[in-house]
Design goal:
Layout (H helix, E strand, L loop, with lengths): L1 H10 L3 H7 L9 H7 L4 H5 L7 H16 L5 H10 L6 H11 L38 E11 L2 E10 L5 E7 L5 H14 L4 E3 L4 H4 L1 H9 L3 E2 L11 H13 L9 H17 L11 H8 L23 E4 L7 E4 L18
Parallel strand pairs: 1-4, 4-5
Antiparallel strand pairs: 1-2, 2-3, 6-7
Helix pairs in contact: 5-7, 6-7
Length: about 350
Amino acid sequence: MELEWLKKKLAHLGSQEHRSMIETEHLKLSVARQCELLELPRSTYYHHPKPPKEADLALMKQIDEIYLESPFFGSRQMTRWLQREGHVVNRKRVRRLMRLMGLMGLTAINPKPSLSKKAASHQIYPYLLRTLKVERSNQVWATDITSIPVCGGFVYLCAVIDWHSRIVLAWELSNTLDASFCVRAVQRAMAIYGKPEIFNPDQGCQFTSAEFTQPLLAAGVRLSMDGKGRCLDNVLVERLWRSLKYEEVYLKRYETMVEAHANLETYLLFYNDRRPHSAHGRQTPSEVYHAQLDQPPPDGGYPSGEEAALPPLLPSIIFYAWSEKPETITINPPDLSHRRGPPQNQTR
């Protein structure tokens, strides 16, 4: 009975979690026996993933650019488009790369299998924005995930925006698609800007997990989720990805995740504080956000000592890259004196 109970618990874990349980230095149990007990094939334990080929990376970059222009393209239409551009590709290869990048979710039919794959046991909340008129800051926040190309592969960016002003409230960069980096982005946004009335993500398993939803529900935030296969339900975040990639990402080649983080931070500060948004005429997202709250951004940054109360932007990055042994690199948090946002001790 105990063995059956253990097997049921282990069945919910993935192969990566099973591999982490193997103790190579165990005195009594061999690796083969441990794999047998965990029902993990030894070939899976000894397998080490290879980095993508340079040709695949170049093709993935072009697919990403086309997808921003035509998010309704599925693998068939994308294959036809690439073939007309002179690429020798078939649908099987294009579909594999699109799934690897998580770009199957904005098609007219299918949800994302990678970035927005929902878990059957997670609760799905109804979409609340269809007839709602968003007129003020902190009325609705939204979030989503996109992929950012770096040398040797892709990393994932999660951003939280205010629906009315379009300001990017917080963001996180990760090379894994677990829920933790999405949770950190929301925690940082709420620590600096308070809480919204409604929070709107998509139905991805990162956003439907209890780790993500419970802190929001406990804070009294109403949850709204995009409809299945409806890319326009979260169109403002998709529009941010378009601006970010055309104005920053595709103009450069990031060699490392650290370099990507530094450049994204510079661009997003520019996007918030200096770049006039087309929806607001001559005003920037930061100006619109703070004008709605009657709290204009301070010219001199935060008062002395307030910076210490803010969560650091990048305390550390864990690199898994293409090996199984994570390496943690600690980086000094960047200077926050130029960031726009109300100090924590102000009331709204």
